[in-house]
Amino acid sequence: MTTVPKHISPLRGWLALSPLIVFTALYLGVSVSAADFYAMPVAVAFLIASVYALALVPGMDARARLDLFSRGAADPGILLMIWIFILAGAFAASAKSIGCIDATVGLVLHFLPGRMVPAGLFVGACFISLSIGTSVGTIVALAPMAAGIAASTGADPAMTVAIVVGGAFFGDNLSFISDTTIAATRTQGCGMADKFRANFRIVMPAAVAVLIYYIWYGWSHPMPAVDTGEIDFVKVVPYLIVLAGALAGVNVAVVLVLGTVSVFIIDMASGSPALTGWLAAMGTGIGSMGDLITVTLLAGGMLQVIRHLGGIDYLLGAMTRRVSRRRGAALTIAALVSVANICTANNTIAIITVGNLAADISRRFGLEPRRVASLLDTFSCVVQGILPYGAQLLMAGSLAMLSPLAIIGHLYYPMALLVCALASIALMRK
Questions:
Q1: pTM of the full predicted structure?
Q2: Of 354, 428, 386, which is closest to residue 201 (Cα–Cα)?
Q3: Are 293 and 85 contacting, i.e. CB atoms less than 8 angstroms apart?
Q4: What is the pLDDT of residues 351-389, one digit of tens each?
Q5: What is the full DSSP assignment across 349-414?
Q6: At how many degrees (to 10) do helices 252-269 and 76-97 cross?
Q7: Using CA atoms, how far apart are residues 323 and 197, in angstroms rounded to an integer?
């Protein structure tokens, strides 16, 4: 089925997109001018931009505008992400309360030389994300450990957590069971194996280059030796359950429930006299996700208003009018999915949004479906990997108590992936 974007005037189109401009100006502008990543809370920036977006909607009373906004906030994908946030908060806090994080960090530092911790974290994140096909699940499993390693060794926590986030997107982009892989191959009508081979040529140079950098960084900035003392191996079990469940393909929500229950069992078996400690820790963890949940709801609502105003239709139409050659067609497809990702804050939804249009462009200019599927997946993951209001960075920031902007400055893998993807387009025959 051909997707034909509606014709929308430039004035109306840019007006529809202006809430994103307002959000960016507030969030980045205030943070950079104040030289403080915490100067402008993400939720406040989204709230102001959302109120502005609702003011732009014509012909509706206040109740109808709020209903429109609420439909975006209540999207099933948004709500599913919120349930995962709640479960992740409960698991992370309860595990920390009985010493699971300390035990896991001690185990890693005991067996992994200080010089190899950055490279080891990256390889581990790449392997897990490739196996489970989800960047969010990888971040949930590894971000608390990465933050714990930084706290124990004095390493930069933003750098350490960014290593995990970068590795998480390796598998999100390449895995056969990733949502983005499934969406990209289905919209382009190609096999997963064909898309994998096309993707592999782009991904591996980026991954190898970043791995070499992390090896060099580890040898240049060795982490100090840490006396891990006696390691309580039993308290590592909850994280092993989370990792094993994720690797087995169990739904991330189910995995987090199992992990949280295992924390309770271990706590009771160790002689803890009360159930209230476990429950209190879970409550604290859920409460710590409040800002993240608020941001997710506000982002979903605001982006729904932008869609209603025609912002995405305008972009799709404007970006496809002047395509004339294969390279231009490939760059247009890359730009389409990137902009759609900025407007939806979800790489899978971005691929679905522009997938049919990308297929039309590929047929017109003779691009291979597997190549187009690879471009859609790669560029959506690049943008999602550096999006400060994307679920992955918000989750990583919440678990490590960091600003997403602080993490972005150390995200070397998405940047290397972008360079390799652009180089692959430049090397295409005209």
A1: 0.71
A2: 428
A3: yes
A4: 877 777 788 788 878 889 999 999 999 999 999 999 888
A5: HHHHHHHHHHHHHHHHHT--HHHHHHHHHHHHHHHHHT-TTSHHHHHHHHHHT--HHHHHTT-HHH
A6: 20
A7: 26
